[in-house]
Amino acid sequence: MAARRTAAAGAATAAGSGEDSAAVELDELMPWSVRPLRTGRAWVSGPDPAALRARWERLAAAEGAEQERLFRPSRSRTPHTPVAALPGRSTTGTDTGTSTGRFAREPGACPDPVRIAHGPFDEEWLLPDHRLIDAARPELWRVGDERQLFAVEHGHVPQTTAGPALSVTHLLPDGHSPAGRPGRIRPLYRRPGATDPNLAPGLLDVLRARLGPEAADPESVLAWILAAALPSPSGCRVPLPADAEVWAAGVELGRELVRLHLRGARDGERPRLPGGRRPYVRAALQARPTGIAYDAEAEALVVGDGRISPVPAGAWEFTVSGVRVVELWFERRAAAAVGAVPEGASGDGPEGGGLDAVGARGWIPEWTSELLELITVLALLDGLRPRQAALRARLEQAPLISRDELRAAGVLPVPASARRPASVLGHQEEGPEGQFALL
To answer: What are 151's strand-pairing partners?
Structure first.
């Protein structure tokens, strides 16, 4: 390695993925990023949409001091705070509309809960009303559509190397980190309709010149990042190969990783394990399961009195930021089944009563289906780890596109304008009290 680090000065490439001068920060490749959502109150999100509707109805029916207590005011939001509508949300319908009037005066109809990515490999529901959320990050809602993808950093945890450094989702991500160290949310596109890629200006030109005219497009770059990114205290670092074969292998692997992260949302094909390895419910899960454990000998997941098998050990042991994914997923739903919010479940901590206890129905059938799919996704991701290890081994020997080359091409340093969201969009947005906002 030392010999590679002292390779000829001024070379356009540098060897070794650990080469400090060659590794590129994700923040330089995808320069526009957004901080995680901050709800300010845990009851606005959860794994059961029916519970969210029940909470809304109770809050809307309450008045005065009781509504204030249930709302749980913060410095950013109270029932009397006028707030603009979330981008992309109608304020005129009875099913999906949300009012921009003050909640205490004009609650309006309950908005349809929307599916969000709640941290890595978990999906929950959110009441999409800007009046209820301290920091909803409207810039994310503004660019979210059926073609958008979001890269979400998990945050660096010292002495933790297992698990992916980031994940990709088509859903609006809240950016929650299981270890309490949230990273950044990076949309792939700066505008709706898959236009204006959130990539350093000139990066695609350099990649195409080095790797072939058809080698690089925004989704290929994202696929490469997912396959090759490594965590570091300063954020994810991404080696960029100058070898077209290495790039092609990484992009192919990354596309498979993206497909699993999206759970077939783009192609309509849900992930499936081979026949004979697909998990099934062997004993029904009870209404309020009290714990979860893994029977390694039988390859079975024991959920209270319920039992699911076969469950590969790799799915059970799959961690992100040092936290076991399946265990955390279960804890959130077990707590919701009895009307309690586990520590950190929505980034706001336990609330001890109030609206977070409204609507608990016990364990619902949808969660069992979601658990089977989660096991499948994690098992398939675990099965791709040897390919990721092989890719990283190739990168140790492959020539890389150096930071000096990116500087010479004008890609680095990234201009300040690339770190800001697109400022002008082709539609109007409703501001507080029904006024239109200017963008």
So the answer is: 168, 186
